[in-house]
Structure formats: structure tokens, C-alpha cells
Amino acid sequence: MSAPVILAVGYAVPRAGLPASASFRRWVEAALRGARRRKSVELAIRIVDADEGRALNRDYRGKDYATNVLSFPAELPPGMNLPLIGDLAICAPVVLREAAEQGKAPRDHWAHLTVHGVLHLLGYDHLVDAEAEAMEALETRILAGLGIADPYA
Q1: Of 11, 32, 137, 141, which has the maximum CB count within 10 A?
Q2: pTM of full prediction above 0.85
């Protein structure tokens, strides 16, 4: 049985051609199952434009360009026991450009970046090679369960 998920999806860009909140829910739930997360979770996903994506990346990571997905893990005070795991900001124009450049179906790329972001919220990272390999292998297994080809192949 999967953990209960409270998910808020906000669109700061026109929704035409973008995944619906139900798709994001399916991808989030798949990531949680794949990571064997059994506790309930709460998170928000905001779909942003290039200007907001760039500002967020600049302000929080010191990198002055829009990137595909940014993860903001919840930093709760000690003793605060809430299911909040954090927030994701996904930059629509970057996702669509990357999908085209990489010859991927946009929907598959959206799914991959959602799974990738959720894993970051759960503490997975790719700063060192061993962690990167483990995270990529987990992403690949989760996506295969959704019928999506290995995004790293």
C-alpha cells in the first residue's frame, strides 16, 4: 500500500500542452513507491516560466540561468513532525527544449524530472559518482515501471 500524498500543483504558465495535476500525482506516487517511502507526504509542484526559473536558480543556487527542476527540501524545526517533504519548481520551457534536443517525448521528460525532483526531496543526491549511479539506477527502475525508457541511455 502506498503512502497518502497531499500534492498541490500550481501553473505559473499557460497550461495548454502541459501535464495535468493527475499526471504529476502518478509520477510522485511512483517515485515514493520506488524509494520505499511508506509515510504520508505533502509537497507542492510549481510549473514556472524561464524568468522565474532563472531567478530561483540564481537566488538559491547562485547559477544565473533557468534549469529544468529545482528541489527545495522542507527544513522543519526540531520536533515538528509534519509530512511536508518540500517543493519542486519545474521550468516548462526548459523541459520542452530539452525533450526536443534529446529526442524524448515531452511527457516522458516531465515524468523523469518529477521523479528526479521527488528523489531529491527524499534526500537522494548526485554530487559524487556512487550516489549519482544509485540515484540514476533508481530513477530508471521507477520510470520503467511507468513504461518509460531509460532517460540516461
Answers
A1: 32
A2: yes
